[in-house]
Each structure stands twice: as structure tokens, then as C-alpha cells.
Write a structure and sequence with these properties.
alpha/beta, 6-stranded parallel sheet, 17% strand
Length: 312
């Protein structure tokens, strides 16, 4: 019993005894049985995190913020990846909840009916992150993607661009990108304009894809003077197309993306983008989870921040 209390950092165990027990445990490679612990406490010191992808900086930055917020607690994040597939997300959520975590963070507001039921019945704090355009099941932290699209359209229009294209990936599975496109096109319509061209690509974002789709769009619609991309990864690909073909940005083509990824800081020009405050979203999610089930229901809306850079 003393060894068990020492490994759990119980306050009634002296530092000398705790250090001795942990030293022996480390020497023999002992790992506590969390399943047995969960049977006694009804939960484990894990926070489930369900995200669609880890292939860019987007969701890892949320995870960094979450880890930072949990740093002074015994809670640790464990990650499940869904590949933008709602049925896979449902399976991951069910598996996560079967471990009786101390909290669950899920990207987005769109889920299967069964997943919604699982989240609503969860006996731990559930935080839906990245998006506030819709009805949250419990807690919610993120930005309005509709507003982000509208604000970027206003920035584009204010600089005189009228032949505007859109290039997006994981369409229509990426609901947040779809909402940005909706906000963007509505702002254009209010100005009496429509998208001159669009590419809705079903595959993953990459610089190569951004470059290829930019080339395809400009070959088809040579009068395009500005392209709005669903992500910075894609906008960098578009920028690479311009560099390779002697095109001046923004004189020949204006470029705007989304996410304010660190990769933008290494380019010869600063590309227009939107900061979705991913690290802060993770931190605020941690605060909600640490408050526990008795904390007030939270809808935390952060304002997207537009940066026009040197590409608009």
C-alpha cells in the first residue's frame, strides 16, 4: 500500500520513501496498471484527443497548447486520428471513452448521430475545438470559420481584386474549410461578385498539390488575379508556382491562405493568412478539463486574425 501511494504521489508519503520507491520502480521497469486503477477511481489520468490529421502543424499546435495547459497536473493527452472520416471518428471516440478518460477533446462540431450520443453521455468534460459555427454538445473553443472567410474576402476586395479563385483540399470532408468558403463567397456576393473559378480537391494538402492545382487553374482561367487557398500549405505551393514561372506576387497573382503556419516565416515574401489561435485553443481546452464536470458550460469564441502580408 505504501508503494502504491508513493507511485501516486500521495501527500501522506515522505519524500524519502517516495524517491526510494520510484527509484526501484524505474530500475525494474515497473509500469502501473492503469486499468486496475480506473476500476477503483472510475477514471484514468488521460485526456483523449481526437483529431482528423497530424500531417501538418495545425493540430500538433493545438496539442502543444493542451499539453502546456495540463503540465502542472497529472493528466496526459493521448491521441486518436480519424483521417476526416466521421465513421472512423465515431470508433475512435468510443474507444477513447472506454478507457474512462478524465477529459475528451474532439476537433470540430460535425459528428455521426452515434458519436453525438457518446459525447453527450460521457462522464468527463468534453470539449469540441477549432470551430464555433454550429451547436456544441458541451464545451466549445474555437473561431468562426465563416467570419474568417468573410474577413479575408473583405481584405481581398479592398485591394481591388475582382477575378478571384478558390483552391481547397479534403473537400467536402473538411467542414471548417467549407465554412470559410461559404463566408468568403457570401462576402463576394454582397459586393456583386462570384468566384471566377474553383478547385475542390478531395485529397490531402501539400505544397506539390498547391502548385499543381494553381497551374491547372491559371491555365484554365488566365484572368485570375487572386487565389484564396484553404490552407497555408497550399498557398505556399501556389507561391512556388509563381516563383518557378517568373510571376510577380502580388502584381501578377495575389495569394492568401489560412492557419498562419510557421513555414510562412521562411519565405522571401510574407503571404497573407489568418491566425486561428491554435495554441491558445489547446490551452483553454485544458483549463475547461481541469475544472472538471462541475465547471460551467463554456462557449469560448476567439477572433480570427487576418494578416495581409506582402501577397495581397
Amino acid at each position: 500500500m505504501t508503494a502504491s501511494r508513493a507511485l501516486r504521489d500521495a501527500p501522506d508519503v515522505s519524500k524519502e520513501t517516495r524517491d526510494k520507491v520510484k527509484g526501484i520502480a524505474a530500475k525494474i521497469g515497473y509500469v502501473p496498471n492503469r486499468i486496475a486503477g480506473a476500476l477503483a477511481s472510475q477514471s484514468v489520468n488521460l485526456v483523449g484527443v481526437v483529431v482528423p490529421s497530424l500531417s501538418s502543424f495545425v493540430f500538433p499546435e493545438v496539442l502543444s497548447g493542451l499539453s502546456s495547459g495540463l503540465d502542472e497536473s497529472p493528466l496526459k493527452p493521448v491521441i486518436g486520428v480519424t483521417g476526416y472520416d466521421l465513421d472512423e471518428e465515431e470508433d475512435v471516440i468510443r474507444e477513447m471513452l472506454s478507457w474512462r478518460p478524465s477529459g475528451l477533446v474532439v476537433a470540430g462540431l460535425e459528428h455521426t448521430e452515434a458519436a453525438c450520443a457518446l459525447l453527450a453521455a460521457a462522464d468527463c468534460p468534453v470539449v469540441e475545438v477549432m470551430d464555433v459555427d454550429g451547436d456544441a454538445i458541451a464545451h466549445c473553443v474555437g473561431i468562426s470559420h465563416v467570419a474568417a472567410g468573410q474577413e479575408m474576402a473583405q481584405a481581398v476586395l479592398s485591394r481591388g481584386y475582382r477575378q478571384i479563385g478558390f483552391i481547397g483540399t479534403k473537400m467536402p470532408q473538411d467542414y471548417r474549410a467549407g465554412k470559410r468558403l461559404d463566408g468568403f463567397t457570401k462576402a463576394l456576393q454582397q459586393a456583386g461578385l462570384h468566384l471566377a473559378d474553383s478547385e475542390l480537391y478531395a485529397g490531402q494538402s501539400s505544397m506539390e498539390t498547391g502548385r499543381d492545382l494553381t497551374e491547372r487553374m491559371l491555365a484554365r482561367s488566365p484572368n485570375i488575379d487572386c487565389i484564396y487557398y484553404s490552407s497555408d500549405v497550399m498557398s505556399v505551393g501556389g507561391y512556388m508556382h509563381c516563383l518557378a514561372n517568373g510571376m510577380s506576387v502580388p502584381n501578377d497573382l495575389a495569394i492568401a491562405g489560412f492557419n498562419n503556419l510557421p513555414m510562412l516565416r521562411g519565405l522571401p515574401q510574407r503571404l497573407a493568412t489568418t491566425d486561428a489561435h491554435r495554441f491558445e485553443i489547446g490551452q483553454r481546452s485544458a483549463e475547461i478539463i481541469l475544472r472538471g464536470m462541475d465547471g460551467p458550460r463554456t462557449r469560448d469564441v476567439l477572433a480570427p486574425t487576418i494578416s495581409v502580408g506582402q501577397s495581397l
